[in-house]
């Protein structure tokens, strides 16, 4: 996957499937609201990568091939509908992309080729 695969930035090619996941063009990132218990952070990551790469979520590799989804959800999910006050950043490579999750709500998706040297 090359940087050319993301030519549609700063607008995503389609809207994310999850109702609590919004694209913010000014920051070129996705904003996830964990207030709705129906969707998890791991689902938000897969949806974000799907939108950013214009691939069907079912065509992506399983998330567990890159990170433990249960651990990701446990670490970044709000407790009792409150986002913890601690600052957490999680980064990992998945489906040819570098994923950075900041403060339990912002998901950045970049092609792995753009992040060389980080």
Report on the structure:
The chain is an alpha+beta fold. The protein is 18% helix and 22% strand. A hairpin with a 3-residue loop joins strand 4 and strand 5. The longest helix is centred in the middle third of the chain and has 13 residues, at 41-53. The two termini are 18 Å apart. 25% of the residues are buried. The model is unreliable at 8-14 (pLDDT under 50).
Question: What attributes characterize this protein structure?
Answer:
22% strand; alpha+beta; five-stranded antiparallel sheet; single chain; 118 residues; 2 helices
Tertiary shape = globular
End-to-end Cα distance: 18 Å
Helix content: 10-25%
Unreliable spans: 8-14
Largest sheet strand order:
1-2-5-4-3
Mind telling me the C-alpha Rg?
Answer: 13 Å
Query: What average pLDDT do the residues reach?
Result: 77
Number of strands: 5
Strand percentage: 15-25%
**What summary fits the major beta sheet?**
5 strands, antiparallel
| Elements, N to C (H/E) | EEHHEEE
- Structural class comes to alpha+beta
Alpha plus pi helix count: 2
